[in-house]
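Run log // design_07
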């Protein structure tokens, strides 16, 4: 799984099941409201252009990317996992079309909120896709 980047994926996991990553760096986070319509996973044209530019100008030394999708808590856990997976896959497709290597695609749904889902503003922060650069 570490694809030659020794030490990236370890056999250790955090209490909530996320792998312990040593050489990953969060190099991009996008609020999904800017790239996807509500409850959708298709990236609009402007979003595709911004993502393509991001992946083409990736940090020097990046071997590959890990894409992680997240949602707010408004739907069921099962539905949110599937939606976050579809959104992460959509971002990964743009990355691959821009020539980037994808090491893994992850879906967390509502399980890893940045902030509590107690207001519309907070829920907007939790609807995101994170891009990790692995060196």
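design_07 sequence
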């Amino acid at each position: 799984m570490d694809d030659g980047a020794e030490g990236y994926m370890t056999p250790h996991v955090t209490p909530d099941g996320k792998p312990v990553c040593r050489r990953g760096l969060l190099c991009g986070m996008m609020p999904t409201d800017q790239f996807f319509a509500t409850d959708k996973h298709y990236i609009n044209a402007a979003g595709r252009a911004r993502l393509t530019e991001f992946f083409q100008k990736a940090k020097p030394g990046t071997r590959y990317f890990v894409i992680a999708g997240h949602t707010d808590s408004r739907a069921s856990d099962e539905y949110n996992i599937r939606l976050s997976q579809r959104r992460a896959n959509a971002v990964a497709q743009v990355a691959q079309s821009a020539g980037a290597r994808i090491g893994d695609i992850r879906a967390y749904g509502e399980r890893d909120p940045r902030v509590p889902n107690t207001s519309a503003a907070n829920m907007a922060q939790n609807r995101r896709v994170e891009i990790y650069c692995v060196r």
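Residues 24-134 form a domain with the 60s Ribosomal Protein L30; Chain: A; fold (CATH 3.30.1330.60).
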